[in-house]
Amino acid sequence: METPLLNNGDDSNRLKAENGDYAEVKCISEAATVFKEETIKLWKIAMPLVFNIVCYYATTSLTNIFVGHLWELQLSAISISVSVIYTFTFGFMLGMGSALETLCGQAFGAAQVHMLGIYMQRSWIILLLSSLVLVPIYIFAAPVLKFLGQDPDVANLAGQYTILTLPSVFSLAISFPTQKFLQAQSKVDVMAWIGFIVLIEHAVLLWLFISVMGWGLRGAAAAFNITEWVTAIAQVVYVFGWCKNSWKGFSWAAFNEMWAFVRLSISSAVMLCLEIWYVMSLPLLAGHLPNAVIIIGSLSICMNVNELQLMIFVGINTAVSKELQQAVSKLAWFLGVTMVLNSVQPVISGIAVGLGWQATVANINLACYYAFGIPLGYILGYVAHFGVMGIWGGMIAGIFLQTLILLFILYRTNWSKEVEETSSRMQKWGGQDISTHKVGDDI
């Protein structure tokens, strides 16, 4: 039965149904009105998040700019450390924390706001323990990079930088769950402000430690550690002070049904790690090509521009040699194709996380990225002798295939059935029936 329209003379309200959804639109003007309203709502939430992400990735680009003034070897060392070791860590920790995105989003939608704080505490515990697993990778970064076939000079310098950035790993265990906690409640403006302030702070620290005090890579590592911890602490302070409805204090309930939460966290980690580590394999494969220092440096610039998209390309390019600029120009059209795909693929992955499809997407990523994209890139790069352009082209093909498959799955999805299954997912992965939970076990 069609829901009656509300008609009070306003086109916007007339299109609204009694249950808050839009009724059936019957003409182009009504469709345009709905599109305009939903676009405004979307950007009110999306713009602060986009700004925060840009600020976060800009810290890496600023580091490359300052280090790029030192020498090409230092730039390549930081690039390989960030692209391999930190990306490995980032993917693992973000994936483990993404279980919170599913549960917090569904709990907030079910008006069980008090559960958000408990879920966040549970995620803190799991990610802090997970951080310990990553410590040996940081300590033995240089041997690992050499084992993967990287240039010894680059690997040794990258290993030194990686060990110095070890404190930042534990900050991710705090900041990632806190971000998901805030995002679920659409408290995104504060995240944007924190991101902006931290970006300014990072630029000042880089200038002070590298340009003024001359600490080189040690200064870059120190600035990075401080920036990561300032971000985590600022977010936690906001949660403790201004999120009274969703933060009820520390609770023993965070330890209940921990294994159910771990299982979802592992599924999320596998899904996102396969996606993020796929990009990590690009500089790894390119590191075996001749003139690896220049190739890795040029890839670093392209990957940073791809992540930021709003940063000025010339501003990054002026930090490096003329030789590197020519290498970047050859890869620029690959960068353009990747940016187009990146405008679609993250949206689809976000829907999958919200619906709890992590395991399904993990299998798709494994097939498209590692069974198709990387082998194709290797064949084009080394067998067909297209070099780094062939490697990147093969990987783009993997992303394109993954995007097509996910679009097809979304097209065939029964959304009514997904809504019905939300409660059962929350009970299974949350470790308890949230409808009967009472906040009586707080410490």
Automatic annotation (TrEMBL):
TM region positions: 49-71, 77-103, 124-145, 157-178, 190-210, 222-240, 261-280, 292-320, 332-357, 363-384, 391-411
The entry's keywords: Membrane, Transmembrane, Transmembrane helix
Keyword Transmembrane: yes
Pfam families linked: MatE
Any one biological process term the GO annotation gives: xenobiotic detoxification by transmembrane export across the plasma membrane
UniProt record similarity statement: Belongs to the multi antimicrobial extrusion (MATE) (TC 2.A.66.1) family.
PANTHER family: MULTIDRUG RESISTANCE PROTEIN
Protein name: Protein DETOXIFICATION
Biological source species: Chenopodium quinoa (Quinoa)
